């Protein structure tokens, strides 16, 4: 999103988060205006769009996207005037899954905006982005398929860049103008900033990805959270996106728990909508079949009062792991 006319951007993630810092600096460097929120309040965010005639809104996935669109839908039916959002051009999401179901609701309410998925990290900067078209919000993996930015690559097991269309799952990385390392943390620097057998230096983003035949990159999910069930790899983000499309599910985190037969089984920790009735594992199974391969369908369900996330909206996987592991056996 570029323009000769200064733009106005509303940055909703907290400033401790890399995505917020990159967004803020980008608009500062372009001579545009950035609007900051003291805290995340969905209804107040829409009023800020109206007040400051915001053109660009920066969010971190469903943790902000879902409350925002639900607040807007509620404001449409309230006794007060709905906010004037004529200035809004684009909503950009990064750092967390922005699921197809939530994107569809944005387009249903705001058909003339653009939705952009961006991938990257504090260490690598931006790795790629894509304008998600209306009616084409489905994803091939746990994250979006993006056009790579300069120097973004997918490395194979030998730490060499993969060829387009190789179908091998690799590690998202970046070369070129990259940091020297972490301050006073040599062990973490060695693990993240690597030199491959050809002498090329890369920084690893921590995400697994696939390089498609057309050169685009499909983000699959965090390698550290990958579930190995019967030898098959399951990335939680893909399953979470499907679960959150269920009408009774407000939020969900997916983890792997120990299983005698499969090594690990896929377990869902779910927060229900207040107005929904009970949800069973059989309900989720029926919802997921046809949307996911059978081995990706959750085999355990734990319902909680609220899903734990960081202030930036990232799922708290260690918390979910403890909750799922402590759940009593079915029956």
Category by helix and strand content = alpha/beta
How large is the radius of gyration?
20 Å
Terminal residue distance: 53 Å
Number of helices: 8
Amount of beta strand: 25-35%
Largest sheet: 12 strands, mixed
Reading the helices and strands in chain order gives EHEHEHEHEEEEEHEEEEEHEEHEH
Oligomer: single chain
- Give the proportion of residues in helices: 10-25%
Task: Name the poorly predicted regions.
Answer: none
What is the overall pLDDT average? 93
Structure notes:
The chain is built from 8 helices and 17 strands. With 331 residues, it is α/β, with parallel strands linked by helices. The strands form 3 sheets. Strands 1, 2, 3, 4, 5, 6, 7, 8, 9, 10, 11 and 12 form a 12-stranded mixed sheet that branches. Helix 2 crosses helix 3 and helix 3 runs parallel beside helix 4. The longest helix is centred in the first third of the chain and has 15 residues. The radius of gyration is 20 Å and the shape is globular. The termini are far apart.
């Amino acid at each position: 999103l570029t323009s000769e006319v200064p733009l106005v951007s509303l940055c909703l993630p907290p400033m401790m988060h890399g995505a917020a810092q990159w967004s803020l600096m980008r608009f500062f460097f372009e001579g545009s205006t950035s609007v900051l929120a003291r805290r995340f309040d969905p209804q107040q965010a829409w009023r800020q769009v109206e007040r400051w005639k915001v053109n660009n809104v920066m969010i971190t996935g469903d943790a902000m996207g879902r409350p925002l669109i639900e607040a807007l839908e509620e404001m449409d039916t309230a006794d007060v005037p709905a906010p004037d959002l004529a200035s809004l051009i684009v909503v950009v999401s990064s750092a967390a899954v922005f699921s197809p179901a939530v994107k569809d609701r944005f387009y249903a309410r705001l058909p003339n905006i653009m939705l952009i998925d961006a991938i990257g990290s504090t260490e690598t900067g931006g790795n790629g982005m894509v304008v998600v078209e209306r009616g084409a919000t489905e994803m091939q993996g746990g994250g979006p398929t993006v056009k790579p930015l300069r120097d973004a690559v997918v490395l194979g097991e030998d730490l060499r860049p993969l060829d387009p269309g190789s179908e091998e799952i690799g590690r998202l990385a970046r070369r070129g103008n990259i940091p020297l390392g972490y301050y006073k943390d040599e062990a973490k620097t060695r693990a993240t900033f690597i030199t491959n057998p050809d002498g090329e230096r890369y920084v690893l983003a921590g995400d697994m990805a696939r390089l498609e035949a057309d050169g685009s990159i499909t983000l699959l999910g965090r390698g550290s959270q990958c579930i190995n069930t019967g030898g098959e790899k399951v990335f939680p983000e893909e399953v979470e996106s499907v679960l959150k499309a269920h009408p009774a599910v407000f939020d969900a985190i997916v983890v792997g728990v120990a299983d005698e037969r499969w090594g690990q089984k896929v377990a869902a920790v779910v927060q229900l909508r207040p107005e929904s009735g009970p949800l069973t594992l059989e309900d989720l199974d029926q919802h997921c079949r046809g949307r996911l391969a059978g081995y990706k369908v959750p085999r355990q369900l734990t319902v909680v009062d609220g899903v734990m996330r960081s202030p930036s909206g990232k799922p708290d996987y260690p918390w979910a792991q403890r909750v799922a592991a402590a759940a009593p056996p079915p029956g």
